[in-house]
Fold this sequence. Notes:
six-stranded antiparallel β-sheet, mainly beta
Amino acid sequence: MNADTFHKMVTAEGFNEPVMVTRDPNGFIDTHEHPFEAKALILDGQIEIGLDSDARVYRPGEVFHLAMSEPHWERYGCAGVVYLSARK
């Protein structure tokens, strides 16, 4: 998926305007949750997201989706990660 298609998709789904997020190489955020629903398109690098005992790596062109208050952890690749994030 590209940024234009992502923007159209999240707008149609009622998300706020996407913002660019950059995370440092090899970063890690322990289990936490957000008071919003989030959908994000990976533009560069990679991010691993863990939910309960399941984890998945997302790379450029892939989209991840987190429900509001969904506990998860995040690990960023050796080049960090850049993604467009939309919230609602």
